[in-house]
Write a structure and sequence with these properties.
484 residues; Pnp Oxidase, Chain A; UbiD C-terminal domain-like; 21 strands; globular
Length: 484
Amino acid sequence: MPDETEICNFSDLRGWLEVVTGWGGLKTVQGATWQQDIGEIAELITHREGGQAIICDDIPGYPHGYRVLVNALRTPERLALAFRLPPHLSRGELTGAIGKMMSEVRPLPPVPVKEGPILENVDEGNDINVLKFPTPQWHERDGGRYIGTACYVAMRDPESGKINLGAYRAMVDDARHIIPHISQGKDGRIIRDKYFDRGEPCPLVFIIGGDPLLFMAGATDFSFEVNEYDWVGGIRGRAVEVITGKYTGLPITADAEIALEGFLHKDDLKDEGPFGEWPGYYARGSRPEPRMELTAVYHRNNPILCGAPPVRPPSEATLFRTCLRSYLLKEQMEKAGVRNIVATWFPEPGGSRLFICVAIKQSYPGHAVQAGHIASQCGVGAFFGRYVVVVDEDIDVTNMDEVLWAMCTRSDPATSIDIIRRAWSTGVDPRLHPDDRAKGITLNSRAIIDATKPFEWKDRFPPESALTREAKKLALEKWGTLLK
């Protein structure tokens, strides 16, 4: 495992990989095909607890050194390293440590530079060929090859001038075009439509590689006021260096692996999809989306194409999304006035979205119901949720055995479940009726399950037979060797 010096002494993807390699967390595979093998490897390894990061090289049809990285952030140790935190933290401890960093972060704006590794190769005009990268077909039934799975997309709001980083998928169309998909309601979609409403093309840059924090920042549900570049600089204590895109003027990470610069055109539509979505289904087929015309392709020598293909959860992206979203949920609930929140958690099997657990110390009548409803509809919880379970403070929300035990013993189906209807969903929701999906009606319902002891008689609730936490701690100190 890395020492404290190694934890801090990197600024890009390659530096992070060097540390991971040093403690045995990276494995190289030669000869895997982009057509089938890399997608299969990605799915198999992401479902293996503690699986190594995998880098594929010598991909048939491509030069040696044109590589694909998968499963990079799947373990708590590698995620902790990306946050410059020590390894050996449990998921709950890691979430707490990340949350502390996020609550104390002082934004550090990016620093413009004239040079950087991303400028080692710059293709323009007829030299543009996005097919030069070994982009995999991630799933058997996908409509094409998806270069945008572990990327972050830089866009500028035309009204405020604010820079936003988002994480959106993109299918390769031909040598000079890719087809992004940005869901309704997302910041990138709002920005895109502002340009279209003005009759202008939308400038953007797909960026792949760089400090792993950048991908995570783009994939996290921050409020629009947060500048992701500033946030990453503050978290790591070192400003991100950026070059200015020649055609869009957008900031491009100077030490990224690959950057695709160009414009979306409202009336240049092409079918995108189908694509195996993160809930684990092909819920939506192909449909027309605006194509991105590439004006420049930048890449380092021997570029590394990062992939985080969505598969049936848990997947590579669910761990960091669980940690980041769980902190943001607690923060947003507290700002909405919910008191005495002990912990919040997005379990990975729900794709770090569909299932929310909240532990509270009940302090007033209706406290649990208030917490459940606000959790389901605040910023980070509102998009494509399904179930919210509220438990007492004695339940560890990161332990699904405890959460399910509380649901089964402290809730009553007839009186403990509220239903919210017509909530914000998405076309990838497999439970949408096909007719509604075809009409663009993306609404769902939410179940708010109060799995706390009833407030009005909680002091008369039957006592538990299990060891208390304090007694269990003492017992482990005395008899813990029997468990080894």
